[in-house]
């Protein structure tokens, strides 16, 4: 009994247990990491919430528009006259203008961008690449309004020397300058995809007696096809959503035509026109910009889905 009492007294006399410095630092580190994770989650959520907000605004406002205009007439009518006394809301003229200018731009951007990418990846010396690549990136940073006035003041007058009857506003000049504007996107991404191909494939091709040109087109290009097609898809999306070039140089006339020599209006250019205050806020004409924006978003979404399928179909793992 006396021994038990003495043992209890010894335990009571010991100092209280404290957390070691190592465990305290670990707990503090875990707390900091948790805070950082929450901050990163919040940053990532911004893009998601922004996208959800944009979709909500477009869908809700488009619902109000389609409660007054039938979807069938919106998709099939060939007249787009929201400013007339008897307005008609057929998206086909704007859709034709958007697709025509985009096709002209792609005819310019894809061949030139691919050629530049092949040259920078396979033929250019490092010193040349270090000079050309920043200039391409600088070309991609020029404001599109500058490109628009360049098309209006330089490109279209040059085209009129070749085609005397060409209008001062047309889709051809706007599309050509759009193609020049998206060349940096196509060439930069395509070149990155080609340079990602392992050097062993090049060395194997050279060992078989192939030239640089044969290696570039028969080995490197097929091996990097997934990334190159992704660059093309990005270029198409960029051309479809272009605004200021077509607003300045293509004219603001919603003509239902696919002739690039004629003026036309694109979906994004119409949104700019209405945003300037040509229609009263809350009217059906004003709500039409949300329906047009929803159509443009669905086009871009379809292109992104196609790009995702293409990447999965042609992706090569090294």
From TrEMBL:
<keyword id="KW-1133">Transmembrane helix</keyword>
<dbReference type="InterPro" id="IPR035906">
    <property type="entry name" value="MetI-like_sf"/>
</dbReference>
<keyword id="KW-0812">Transmembrane</keyword>
<keyword id="KW-0592">Phosphate transport</keyword>
<dbReference type="InterPro" id="IPR000515">
    <property type="entry name" value="MetI-like"/>
</dbReference>
<feature type="transmembrane region" description="Helical">
    <location>
        <begin position="91"/>
        <end position="120"/>
    </location>
</feature>
<feature type="domain" description="ABC transmembrane type-1">
    <location>
        <begin position="95"/>
        <end position="307"/>
    </location>
</feature>
<comment type="similarity">
    <text>Belongs to the binding-protein-dependent transport system permease family. CysTW subfamily.</text>
</comment>
<keyword id="KW-0472">Membrane</keyword>
<dbReference type="Pfam" id="PF00528">
    <property type="entry name" value="BPD_transp_1"/>
</dbReference>
<keyword id="KW-0997">Cell inner membrane</keyword>
<protein>
    <recommendedName>
        <fullName>Phosphate transport system permease protein</fullName>
    </recommendedName>
</protein>
<feature type="transmembrane region" description="Helical">
    <location>
        <begin position="169"/>
        <end position="194"/>
    </location>
</feature>
<comment type="function">
    <text>Part of the binding-protein-dependent transport system for phosphate; probably responsible for the translocation of the substrate across the membrane.</text>
</comment>
<keyword id="KW-1003">Cell membrane</keyword>
<feature type="transmembrane region" description="Helical">
    <location>
        <begin position="35"/>
        <end position="59"/>
    </location>
</feature>
<feature type="transmembrane region" description="Helical">
    <location>
        <begin position="215"/>
        <end position="234"/>
    </location>
</feature>
<feature type="transmembrane region" description="Helical">
    <location>
        <begin position="141"/>
        <end position="163"/>
    </location>
</feature>
<dbReference type="InterPro" id="IPR011864">
    <property type="entry name" value="Phosphate_PstC"/>
</dbReference>
<keyword id="KW-0813">Transport</keyword>
<feature type="transmembrane region" description="Helical">
    <location>
        <begin position="284"/>
        <end position="306"/>
    </location>
</feature>
């Amino acid at each position: 009994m006396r021994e038990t009492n003495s043992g209890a007294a010894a335990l009571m006399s010991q100092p209280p247990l404290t957390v070691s410095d190592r465990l305290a630092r670990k707990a503090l580190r875990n707390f900091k990491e948790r805070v950082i994770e929450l901050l990163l989650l919040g940053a990532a959520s911004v893009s998601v919430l922004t996208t959800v907000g944009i979709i909500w605004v477009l869908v809700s406002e488009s619902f109000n528009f389609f409660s007054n205009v039938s979807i069938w007439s919106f998709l099939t009518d060939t007249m787009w006259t929201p400013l007339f006394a008897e307005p008609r809301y057929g998206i086909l003229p704007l859709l034709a203008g958007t697709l025509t200018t985009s096709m002209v731009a792609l005819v310019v951007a894809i061949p030139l961008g691919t050629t530049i990418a092949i040259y920078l990846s396979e033929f250019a010396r490092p010193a040349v690449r270090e000079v050309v690549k920043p200039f391409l990136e600088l070309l991609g940073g020029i404001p599109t309004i500058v490109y628009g006035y360049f098309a209006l003041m330089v490109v279209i007058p040059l085209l009129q020397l070749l085609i005397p009857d060409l209008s001062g506003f047309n889709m051809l000049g706007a599309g050509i300058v759009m193609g020049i504007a998206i060349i940096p996107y196509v060439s930069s991404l395509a070149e990155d995809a080609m340079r990602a191909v392992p050097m062993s494939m090049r060395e194997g091709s050279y060992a078989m007696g192939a030239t640089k040109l044969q290696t570039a087109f028969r080995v490197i290009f097929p091996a990097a096809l997934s990334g190159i097609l992704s660059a093309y898809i990005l270029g198409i999306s960029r051309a479809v959503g272009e605004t200021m070039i077509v607003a300045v140089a293509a004219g603001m006339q919603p003509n239902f035509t696919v002739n690039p020599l004629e003026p036309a209006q694109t979906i994004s250019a119409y949104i700019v026109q209405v945003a300037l205050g040509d229609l009263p806020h809350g009217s059906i004409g004003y709500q039409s910009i949300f329906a047009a924006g929803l159509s443009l978003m669905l086009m871009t979404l379809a292109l992104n889905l196609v790009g995702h399928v293409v990447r999965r179909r042609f992706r090569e793992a090294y």
